[in-house]
Task: structure prediction
Amino acid sequence: MNMALSSSFSRAINAEIEEIGWEHLVRLAEDLSFVTFRVVSVSDKKERVHVLEILLDKSYPNCAPSVSADVPYLFDLVWSRSSRLNDVVKQFRQHLEKLQQFWSAVEDIDQSLLVSDSAQLHRATSFRHINIGNDCSIILHIRVNDPRSLPECRFLGLDENVNLLRDKWRRNCNKWSKDKLFAENIATLLEFQLPGTPGVEKNDQQIDCGICYSQFLPVDDELGPKSGSKTDYTCENTTCSKAFHSVCLGDWLRSITTTRQSFDVLFGNCPYCSQPVAVKIGARK
Result:
């Protein structure tokens, strides 16, 4: 790509980002090979934030971009030469509308049952591994397009206990009701009350970063002492109190044109509540 074409391409991408709103931008690659946006479904009362990554081919916009997101399945992008990045965001938002019931269902499970490896789960995960006591557990596969229906179930544990549980499940499966919560339905099928979440202690362990949506940073030598670390920055606005990795927040602030830097501190605004934030940045390896 020659310099004139590169300059023209850069102006076009910046104009399309402006159309969406710079406040929704998470990251823009220096070589313009990808751009990521923060997207919220219009009907989502919990205002779950999703990150949409759009991969831009050198022939963009003549060829459709590729998309990536933490969802159970991706949508089929409708694209023409006159399409813009805003069209991708709009289609992704429509896709999120279809997945609201799914996320409500899995949150019901996460909040009421003893889910194993909960810190490793993502919004694309459509199964839950649940500890039901007596050295037994079940793996539920939630149907993404019909999440309140009877899920596929696999029992793990001693054969004697598992066979008994499987017999109860088969015998009572017709009692499953889409109008009931998962914990109530499973208790009905298995004929006993399942152990619940361990309460506040568990919630304290699930403080995910508001930008990368993971509790821990990846293990990466480039992150230096921050490698594998948990969230270490919280917005001071008490009505927000979003948690972040300072690394993620620093990267996000660098992508915003209004961010100021004084020595090793970045000054900007919280991506959720727009209140002032100040993040100390450290040198990476």
Q: What stands out?
A: The helical segments are 3-20, 85-98, 100-112, 159-172, 182-190, 200-204, 246-254. The CA atoms of residues 222 and 285 lie 5 Å apart. The two ends are 31 Å apart (CA to CA).
